[in-house]
Amino acid sequence: MNRLAGKVALVTGAGRGIGAAIARAFAAEGAAVVLAELDGATAAATAREIANACEGARTLAVQTDVTQPASLRAAVQEAQRAFGPVDVLVNNAGINVFADPLTMTDDDWRRCFAVDLDGVWNGCRAVLPGMVERCAGSIINIASTHAFQIIPGCFPYPVAKHGVIGLTRALGIEYAPKNVRVNAIAPGYIETQLTHDWWNAQPDPEAARKATLELPPMKRIGRPEEVAMTAVFLASDEAPFINASCITIDGGRTALHHE
Question: pTM of the predicted model, to two decimals?
């Protein structure tokens, strides 16, 4: 299929997990994809994998630190030189920072917000001038169900993710007259390497895995590819009137009051 044919997409944190799945799906749908990733080697390996798996795929790996505005501006410039103006931005890069509020260090607070909120704004700010000038563009921010539900022990991560939703809505309204759409995706539990790492760090990994799988009403957790196909939809011309919105991908967990 070619739902994104002719589009240029930049995906942050695209070396693995949800970001890599989005990059693969975009390439399969005909987009030229720039994998903007802090770990340049991981990005390059994923870009090669996509190019080998998808005939005719156009990919470019760019080492990018989303906490640095200049780094994102440079990534956008490299994308433009290689493929042309950026039509789609996916702000996927993020980190988990979970701490007790009163014992958390100032560095932990700053690290969380530098990546999970400032990094999203830095990406938006890098692509918005071109999108506004062309009166076209789609920005997709990867938020989290932490953006509207609180799990004890996860501070300050949900604070940053609440901010991502606010940023999404504010920018979506601000630039709607310029035909630039800004939306968010809020994944729940998704089976990434980070999820496996968390299970394996528990005293009983198998029990932790089973407990996680019991949480969603569907009695399973999501796959990165399921998030990726929602991103394809939002990036495509099939969603021209979806703006300043958030799509939740959690198997219905947030709609459940209690078991």
Answer: 0.96
